[in-house]
Structures are given as structure tokens and as C-alpha cells.
Amino acid sequence: MADYDTNNVFAKILRGEIPSHKVYEDDSVIAFMDVMPQGPGHTLVVPKAPSRNLLDADPAVLAQLLPVAQKIAHAVKSAFSADGVSLFQYNEPAGGQSVFHLHVHVVPRFEGVALKPHSGKMEDGAVLAAHAEKVRQALAG
């Protein structure tokens, strides 16, 4: 397995070098809107510890990550009145990983509505800001 790259996009977000639409943060984990969402409310849950992926993560990091993913799943389901929620987690290029910092995708799902492809086309910042606010309100409520 390759070494952790401290210049990956999520490491830069964690250092404040790249802006994000943050919805949650504690000492160990941050959650923010995916800039290329597969559906409204698509949120990423990211540990602050430098873990390349699930395969090299310290079990203590995983123990901090999953409860936050659950909290975010409840919030996005509520915020977007979704019928369900999908969590995705990819490891290594063959497994679909494209950003090499451990993260969980939390995507609200709706009956009969397919996910958009993770195409490389960035969502409008105003849309992401509005979605982030909905998630923050659901977390506060």
C-alpha cells in the first residue's frame, strides 16, 4: 500500500487550505458537503487522523468515524425528507477510491431516483451552501 499523501484534497481541507461547506466537526472527525454530489445532501465524513483508507486506519480512528457517519445519516435523511440513506466507502483505485484519505459518503436516497454519476462536475457553491445549512439545522434539531 502506498504512503499517505499529505497533499490530498481532504488533508488540504482539514488544514483550511481549501474551503468546504462544513456541517459538523469535533476533535476527531469533520463532515462536509461533497462538491460533486451524487444527489442532494451528499455529505462526506472524514477523520482528522491521516489515514489513507480503511485498510490502514487505526481501529481507534474507525471507532470515532462510524458514530459520526450515523449521526450525519440521520441528519441528511431528515433534512432532505429522504426515503433512505446509502453509505459508501471505497479503498484503493480498484475499489473505486479517488481521494486517498479515509472517508465515508453519506447519500440521502429517494424511491425511484437513481444516483447521479460522480462525474467530476462541481455543484454550484450556493446549492452546496443551502444543503449544508439544511444538514446543520437537522443536526441542531
The SSE string, one letter per element, is HEEEHEEH
Number of helices: 3
Assign the structural class, choosing from mainly alpha, mainly beta, alpha/beta, alpha+beta, or little secondary structure.
alpha+beta
Characterize the biggest β-sheet.
5 strands, antiparallel
* CATH fold call: HIT family, subunit A
Q: If you average the pLDDT, what whole number results?
A: 96
* Rg over CA atoms: 14 Å
Describe the protein's topology:
Layout: H1 9-14, E1 22-25, E2 29-33, E3 43-47, H2 59-79, E4 84-88, E5 104-109, H3 125-140
Antiparallel strand pairs: 1-2, 2-3, 3-5, 4-5
Helix pairs in contact: 2-3
Please explain how this structure is put together.
With 141 residues, the protein is α+β, with helices and mostly antiparallel strands. It has a single domain (9-112, 120-140), classed as HIT-like (HIT family, subunit A, 2-Layer Sandwich), CATH 3.30.428.10. Helix content is 30%, strand content 18%. The protein has 3 helices and 5 strands; from the N terminus they run αβββαββα. It has helices at residues 9-14, 59-79, 125-140; strands at 22-25, 29-33, 43-47, 84-88, 104-109. Strands 1-2-3-5-4 form a 5-stranded antiparallel β-sheet. Helix 2 (59-79) crosses helix 3 (125-140). The chain is globular and about 40 Å long. The model has no long low-confidence stretch (mean pLDDT 96).
Which tags fit this structure?
globular, five-stranded antiparallel β-sheet, HIT family, subunit A, alpha+beta, 30% helix, 141 residues, 5 strands
